[in-house]
Design a protein that fits this description.
By secondary structure, the protein is an alpha+beta fold. About 55% of the residues lie in helices and about 15% in strands. It contains 12 helices and 12 strands. A 5-stranded antiparallel β-sheet has the order 2-1-5-4-3, with helices on one face. Helix 10 packs antiparallel against helix 11.
């Protein structure tokens, strides 16, 4: 089967065409219900009208004298009675015929003043139904009036014919509309398939036609485009990370290679060789630290550490970290201050849900950064504020600070500010911090620290959402 035949027959397999078929079925059911209701209403109306005619004529004729009534019945063909009444018969008390064109007493008719619907079976014609009314008149006689149902039969015929004639064009129009709409839907889907094929062939900048997202298909295309934007951004990040890894590993490995080549090019004493080996080991350790940090970030971002979550008291955790780093701060000529009040009331409000080891790693990285970039005589302060629904933890220093334009970039991998290039490091510490905080659902903001205008310092402000913590628990 050719592509054009596939497209042509594919129209009938689209959801739009199937929806059109369901709509056509609903239209037909609605038309049938409409005609049924119309027929019921018309039948009821005709029955009421026929009964009213019979009762009105009977009321008039009952008032006539016996002689006048018999005359009118005999002469019905020449008076107004023939216009509204189809059959008239005058019978005695024993139901014997006296006058009128109704020659015999209808079988099943009862003289009760009510309208009865009976079937007549003439010898020379097909059976037919009529409505009869039998009333007693002066002289002990019985007057029988009959009204035909031919008008109702005509209405039935008109309704059936109208239904049959209207269903066909309505169904054809609906099917034609379904084919047109399905063809349009297939054309749009074909365009999207072509765009997807180009994307799969490597054109990552290609996007699906989404226009203004006015319908479900365009909104779906818009969502796919946003997903492709995100994937392209991640691919760019992966490419940049790969380049950064190659650059960061190439430098120490090149130094190792150069030193080893110099050591083997000519005879050297043991002290020189030991120094070469020691420096090569330091360079290799730097390479391993980069690889270990990247693996650690990947493990955390995959969410594999959630199994170790438990209740953690941030006040106790901060106290332990401060005790660990206080001697290092004193050695560097810095003042490390824990501004979190150590009392039972505060301790109860400082409990969160997370991985204690990872949170220790966060604070350790932040303290390391603060001490690296704060000159001697400066200070590093950690404080916390417990608010309804959140805990705000702040680590601030009086160092060189981070320019506002670079505060978002420093959280990326391998990024190093111009001010910090003279300080040893891999540029992965804050990336690791961000990965751990993201795992815990913690918001991080970077602001100016507690320093002077010349040395503004830097402050890392973390917000632990207690509602998210409880849900995670």
């Amino acid at each position: 089967m050719s592509l054009s035949e596939n497209s042509r027959f594919g129209i009938f397999r689209t959801a739009t065409f199937r929806l059109t078929l369901a709509f056509v079925a609903a239209i037909i059911c609605g038309m049938v219900l409409q005609f049924v209701l119309l027929f019921v209403q018309m039948t009821h109306f005709e029955a009421e009208r026929s009964s009213g005619i019979l009762h009105r004529e009977a009321d008039v004729l009952v008032q006539e004298t016996p002689e006048r009534l018999e005359y009118q019945v005999r002469e019905r063909a020449t008076n107004d009675l023939r216009v509204v009444i189809n059959w008239v018969g005058l019978f005695d008390g024993h139901y014997r015929h006296i006058a009128g064109d109704l020659k015999s007493w209808p079988e099943g008719l009862v003289v009760d003043g009510k309208v009865h619907r009976l079937t007549l079976s003439p010898t020379d014609d097909e059976p037919y139904e009529m409505r009869f009314l039998a009333v007693r008149v002066p002289g002990g006689r019985v007057l029988v009036l009959a009204h035909s149902l031919h008008l109702l039969s005509e209405l039935r015929y008109m309704i059936r014919r109208g239904a049959l004639l209207s269903v066909f064009p309505v169904v054809m129009f609906a099917l034609l509309t379904g084919v047109v709409l399905s063809h349009r839907a297939l054309a749009r889907v074909k365009t999207m398939h072509e765009a997807i094929d180009r994307i799969m062939q490597g054109d990552v900048h290609e996007r699906l036609p989404a226009a203004r997202e006015r319908d479900e298909l365009e909104r779906l295309a818009g969502s796919v485009n946003r997903m492709l934007d995100r994937l392209e951004h991640l691919m760019d990040e992966i490419r940049d990370v790969g380049n950064d890894i190659a650059h960061d590993l190439r430098t120490p490995l090149s130094r190792v290679r150069a030193r080893l080549e110099r050591a083997t090019s000519s005879p050297h004493d043991a002290d020189y060789l030991n120094s070469v080996i020691e420096r090569a080991t330091l360079d290799l350790d730097q390479c391993f630290s980069v690889i270990t940090a990247l693996l650690r970030i990947g493990e955390i971002e995959n969410g594999r550490r959630r199994a170790g979550f438990a209740q953690v008291n941030l006040g106790d955790l901060v106290a332990d970290i401060v005790d660990l780093y206080e001697p290092i701060a004193e050695t560097n000529g810095l003042v490390l201050t824990n501004a979190i009040a150590q009392d039972p009331a505060t301790s109860e409000t400082m409990t969160t849900f997370g991985d204690r080891d990872l949170l220790v790693e966060v604070l350790a990285n932040l303290f390391d950064n603060a001490m690296k970039f704060t000159p001697a005589g400066g200070r590093v302060t950690i404080s916390a504020v417990s608010t309804p629904g959140a805990i705000r933890l702040r680590v601030a220093d009086t160092g060189i600070g981070i320019p506002e334009a670079e505060r978002e970039a420093v959280l990326g991998r391998f990024y190093r500010s111009d001010k910090s290039r003279h300080v040893p490091g891999s540029g992965l510490g804050l990336s690791l911090v961000m990965a751990i905080l993201r795992l815990h659902g913690v918001d991080l903001a970077i602001a100016d620290g507690d320093g002077s205008p010349e040395m503004p310092g830097c402050a890392f402000e973390m917000v632990f959402q207690l509602s998210a913590v409880s849900e995670s628990a």
